[in-house]
Amino acid sequence: MANSTIPLRNITSTGGTDTTSMTRRSFVKNTSGVSAASLLGTAALMTNSDEAQANTEWAEWFQGNYRLMSDDEKQEAVVRLERRYSSEYGKKVSVDTKPAEEGVLFGYALNIQKCIGCRRCAKACVEENNQSRGDQEIEWIRVLKMEKGGFDETKMGEGYPDGYGIEIGGNAYSAAGVVGEGEHYYDPKLVPEEDFFYMPIACMQCEKPPCVKVCPVRTTYREPDGIVVVDYNWCIGCRMCIGACPYWARRFNWGEPKLAKEDMNPETHYLGNRPRMKGVVEKCTFCLQRTRNGRYPACVEVCPVGARKFGNLLDPESEVRRVLANKRVFRMKADLNTYPKFFYYID
Amino acid sequence: MPDTREPLNVFAERAEYWGLPVMTAAVAMLLAILSGQAQAQAREICFESRENASAVVVTEVEEGLPNVKCSEKTGGVLWWGDPYDGTVPMGDMPIEADYSQGEAVVMPRDSQLNLPPACGTACHNGTFPPPNNDNTPRQLTIHMDMVPDALNLQHGRGSIWCLDCHNPEVRNKFIDHAGDEIDFNQPQKLCGACHGPLYKDWRAGIHGKRIGEWASTGKKRWFVCTECHNPHDVQQGERNSGFAQLVPEAPPQLPRGMKNADHERPPH
Question: CA nearest A140: which of A292, A231, A247?
Answer without folding.
Answer: A247
